[in-house]
Each structure stands twice: as C-alpha cells, then as structure tokens.
Amino acid sequence: MGSTTLKGVPGFIELTLPGGDTYRSGEPEALVAAATGWQLPLNHLVWWIRGLPAPGDDFRLLFDDASQLAIIRQAGWEIRYDRWQQFLPDHPTLPAKITALKGDKRVRLVVSDWNTLDTKP
User: Fold this and answer.
1) pTM for the predicted model, two decimal places
2) CA-based, 20 to 30 A from 30: which of 11, 60, 66, 121?
3) What is the three-class DSSP state of 7?
4) Domain 41-114, CATH class in plain words
5) Which H helix or E strand runs over 102?
6) 76-99 residue pLDDT tens
7) pLDDT tens digit string along 18-34?
8) Domain coordinates of the chain in residue numbers?
C-alpha cells in the first residue's frame, strides 16, 4: 500500500495516504477501513506500539534470548517487535519497528518519534 502516516490521540486520528490525501475522523477504525479497506484493531494498536498487550483479551508473550519482548499474540494478530530504541532520556526503550501479521495481512509500523505529555502545571 505504500507509506501511510497515522497520527492521533485516543478517539481521533489523522491518516495520510501515499498520494498525500489526508483524512481525519473521530471514528479511527471506521476511517482506516474506509480509506484502506483494512480492519485494523486500533484500540489494540495503541497498546501494541508501546510494547504492551491490550487489556481485555487473552494474549501470549514471547521473548528473545536477551529477555526482550519479541512477539505478542493477541486477537488473532501476531505483533513482532523488530527493533527497540531509546527515544527519551531517562525512559525505557520503546518499540521503533513493529510488524503486525494476521493471515495474509501485514502491516509494518516504523515509529519515528515519541513524545511525553507534560503534566507539570
């Protein structure tokens, strides 16, 4: 499908397709399905991109030889953690490259930046 950019916060998403068309919606899963034809579990994805299983569903975690999370299996998807990176000083490493597989579907995510929410007054 090419390089597609997703940006968002819980309950709102901005999707930019390879040709530059940009779509915004308060219904993220419906927008992705309408724009791409894919049924992506975005409610799960917000957890998976942090290296965590989504709450409410059974899951299986697999670790590599260095005890780093390598795979989450959940909701019929296999989430492979291909690369971890130190994005923020004084924070643990976070996923930088993820491959999500379900049947013949494959979604590759590359995280270019992580931001923290500044909760100081």
Assistant:
1) 0.78
2) 60
3) strand
4) mainly beta
5) strand 94-102
6) 999 999 999 988 888 888 999 999
7) 888 888 888 877 888 88
8) 1-40, 41-114
